[in-house]
């Protein structure tokens, strides 16, 4: 029997890669979109004939309950959120409504419609924030450093609470930073790859960045969505850190990106701009993926260097098409 999966946040980076993956697994894929959303669908343009779209909103309990009753999925992947950390400082209440309470609304809808539905919640390494140990694992205490991180902690613990209180198959994947050519340009990795491509094509001469010394554990989004799916195929629900176990600084990312474009040293182009420094910085995030390897049989396939080159080349080709048009 064909399984049905409902994806919230299907127009985002992770949603698009997850939809692709589930289609290869033979799923009926249904994507929830907000009727009032201004999100463009470019990331899933190549999939629109293979996906069903339904209207729903994480701010509206009734819409989610009706949607689940209509779609009747076996699996729900809750990827929708206000997911840009700097924006969470400007819109902390809205971030809480989407990223925290939105999770509760999804869980309540599942409990009301069909408690047998398996649900994946997108947790985040930003929950660790001011880290208390290195590397970070499933047992590491949370110490979020942004309204987004705080909201994600709520979403994580409410998922645990519903799993233990109502016996739901509810899991949280604590995903460390995962990037791709589909990453939004507001994120530093895509800002770098896009800036490098613009410099390569002579469209600009400099790239302005914030804290170059912040360190992250960066992987490829296409690898990470496979882990999401694996978590819902297990016998028992559990929370798992998904990471590469390697850490690199923003400086490393910039250096690798400029080299991939054949532009020489990043120092000739990068300007440190205090406007892009967060009010409370997260200095070092690096995950311990040993549980993912042991319990899920999951390991990342794309290296940091290959990821950076993939993103840079995609943006260079995009600008080449635009210039040639």
- Would you report the number of β strands? 13
Sheet with most strands: strand arrangement: 3-2-1-4-5-6-11
Q: Fraction of residues in helices?
A: 40-55%
Instruction: Give the name of the CATH architecture of the largest domain.
Output: 3-Layer(aba) Sandwich
Report the C-alpha radius of gyration, rounded: 19 Å
- CATH homology superfamily of the largest domain: NAD(P)-binding Rossmann-like Domain
If you average the pLDDT, what whole number results? 93
CATH third-tier fold name of the largest domain: Rossmann fold
**Helical segment count:** 10
Low-confidence stretches: none
Describe what this molecule looks like in 3D.
With 325 residues, this protein is of the alpha/beta class. The radius of gyration is 19 Å and the shape is globular. The chain is 41% helix and 16% strand. Helix 4 runs parallel beside helix 5 (147-166) and helix 6 packs parallel to helix 8 (250-260). The chain has 2 domains: 4-178 and 218-242, Rossmann fold (3-Layer(aba) Sandwich); 184-216 and 246-324, UDP-galactose 4-epimerase, domain 1 (Alpha-Beta Complex), CATH 3.90.25. The protein has helices spanning 13-24, 61-71, 85-90, 92-113, 147-166, 188-200, 221-231, 250-260, 290-296, 304-324, and strands at residues 4-8, 28-33, 51-55, 75-78, 118-124, 169-175, 178-179, 207-209, 215-216, 219-220, 240-242, 248-249, 270-272. The model has no long low-confidence stretch (mean pLDDT 93).
């Amino acid at each position: 029997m064909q399984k049905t999966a409902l994806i919230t946040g299907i127009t985002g980076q992770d949603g698009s890669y997850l939809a692709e993956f589930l289609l290869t697994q033979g799923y009926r894929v249904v994507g929830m979109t907000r009727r009032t959303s201004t999100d463009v669908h470019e990331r899933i343009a190549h999939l629109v004939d293979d996906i069903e779209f339904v209207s729903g909103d994480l701010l509206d309990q009734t819409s989610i309950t009706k949607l689940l009753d209509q779609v009747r999925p076996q699996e729900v992947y809750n990827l929708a959120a206000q997911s840009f950390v700097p924006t969470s400082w400007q819109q902390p209440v809205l971030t809480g409504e989407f990223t925290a309470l939105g999770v509760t609304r999804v869980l309540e809808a599942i409990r009301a419609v069909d408690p047998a539905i398996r649900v994946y919640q997108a947790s985040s390494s930003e929950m660790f924030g001011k880290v208390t140990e290195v590397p970070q694992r499933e047992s590491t205490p949370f110490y979020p450093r942004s309204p987004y991180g705080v909201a994600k902690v709520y979403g994580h613990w409410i998922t645990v609470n519903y799993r233990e209180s109502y016996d739901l198959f509810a899991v949280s994947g604590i995903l460390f930073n995962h990037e791709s050519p589909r990453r939004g340009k507001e994120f530093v990795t895509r800002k770098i790859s896009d800036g490098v491509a613009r410099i390569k094509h002579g469209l600009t001469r400099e790239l302005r960045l914030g804290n170059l010394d912040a360190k992250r554990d960066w992987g490829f989004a296409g690898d990470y969505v496979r882990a999401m799916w694996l978590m819902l195929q297990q016998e028992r629900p559990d929370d798992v850190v998904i990471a590469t176990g390697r850490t690199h600084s923003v400086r490393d990312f910039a250096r690798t990106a400029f080299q991939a474009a054949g532009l020489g040293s990043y120092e000739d182009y990068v300007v440190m701009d205090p406007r892009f420094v967060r009010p409370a910085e997260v200095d070092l995030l690096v995950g311990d993926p040993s549980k993912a390897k042991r319990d899920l049989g999951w390991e990342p396939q794309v290296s940091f260097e290959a990821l950076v080159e993939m993103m840079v080349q995609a943006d260079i080709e995009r600008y080449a098409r635009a210039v040639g048009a």
